[in-house]
Fold these 2 entries.
Entry 1:
Amino acid sequence: TNGSWRHTNIIFSSSGLVHVKNPHLDAMEEDILYHLDLGTKTHNLPAMFGDIKFVCVGGSPNRMRAFAQFMHRELGLAGDGEELADICAGTDRYAMYRVGPVLSISHGMGIPSISIMLHELIKLLHHAKCRDVTIIRIGTSGGLGIEPGSVVITDTALDSSFKPRFEQVVLGDVVVRSTELDKALAEELLSCSTETPDFPTLIGHTMCTYDFYEGQGRLDGALCSFSSEKKLEYLRRAYDAGVRNIEMESTAFAALCGLCGLRAAVVCVTLLDRLEGDQIRAPRALLGEFQRRPQRLIAAFIRKRLGVQ
Ligand code: URA
């Protein structure tokens, strides 16, 4: 096969520092992280964030606040965590909470939104001189041929042609980046699923699309130009290529984090089985319980890493 884009971009330095691959940054007197409402002159980033070891990102601001409160309890920290302050309160683009060595940040929906957040987050970790950071996206997704409520740990993020690549247009040219994730981290996360025996957890490929409706082969959008048969043929081809869930951020997340030397994982719960339908029909209470599943797995992982009983 022609595998010219199948290069690996995962490089870990012995220092454990985050790499920013931008020669212009050094020449800047000040760096304003606009969408986070933080900056190198207005904030002491090493003091605020220098000891962060785990960064968890997810689409919704409320869910990432709930995750921070949950981690607060799981780490046995003083207080009930209800008073946690949004570090990015000056902007309503993203929300950020800190609990011990854990940072919890929202990224909105889709590749453009997560990619803007990640540029600023990665620079934040760089300016703060953080070392040995593990970053995990905890999200929701549509499942393929697996029980709704299952949690999928991504080994490789694929684009909508089932290729492990992320294409970014730079100055009018398409730049192709690899979307490999850290396999050892995925296995380590899977081993933590013994702590969450009430739901299935598996490792699989994740397909990342630019849209929730037509882009994911749904028949129920405002536009649809294909038949039910064509839809099922596409989703079955995805399943045969190893895809077990579909979401909208993993390729950009894997590419950016991989290039910047962050150990990265994607852990998403599936809200439905796309081979069975398009609409998300589960009651809100059940969906709420589903969304807490990746959080519980990650809490078990962080507690194990920190040696918290
Ligand atoms: N998120 C997605 O991107 N797709 C789904 O089907 C469900 C959640």
Note: The CA atoms of residues 179 and 309 lie 34 Å apart.
Entry 2:
Amino acid sequence: AKRKAIIAGNWKMNKTASEAAVLVDELIPAVKDASCEVVICTPYTDLVTAVAKTKGTNIHVGAENVHFEKSGAFTGEISADMLVDLGVEYVIVGHSERRQYFAETDQTVNKRALAALNAGLKVIICVGESLQQREEGVTEELVRMQTKIALRDVTAEQMANVVIAYEPIWAIGTGKTATAEQAEEVCAQIRKVIGEVYGEAVAEATTVQYGGSMNAKNCEELLSKKDVDGGLIGGASLKAPDFAVIVNAA
Ligand code: 3PY
């Protein structure tokens, strides 16, 4: 069976709730004929608006992060149950911006993924190397390690709710995109690791996305690769016509 292709927008720290309402209204008609799954991951403050507006449409809503504890004295944090209660379905964990600017580690990424999965959320786990790591030739080892640690204690059944996004850090917000061959190579390596841990059937069924400056111009080539099952989209997800082009290419 062919894997489910997923195009997910990562809005990052953009759009007030009022602005989100406008963008979602533009997105709904623009992506309604998609044959892939369409997800928009928004700031926490946009989630209520996004969930309400997309009800009954083919757009699924995700958050951009989640805390790993269930509740308690964690000022400023948001739990998985809080997201579920709002009607949120997805959450990104371990985006490189979280790792770089907010001291996320492979261990906290794993804890967040487990908390989200145990609460019934679907997770988009981000992995990817820096430019220095690529130049040193350790991309495969690094991505293997990130993937394995992120998935520690995740069951084979829960893998149905796991998406891995390969996002080379050097291609994020830089306008540089990995070539389709580079994207395919690492996405295939990620699938191989999943196969080693969970077996071939789970590996073949798991959606592995490419992310990092995927846009309306380069999406077709990237998405044509056999191990690239969709994309996690930064800047281009903030423009309805561009996002629609990517969605319709998947
Ligand atoms: C990008 O496209 O730059 C992203 O980081 C998507 O998550």
Note: The chain has eleven helices and eight strands.
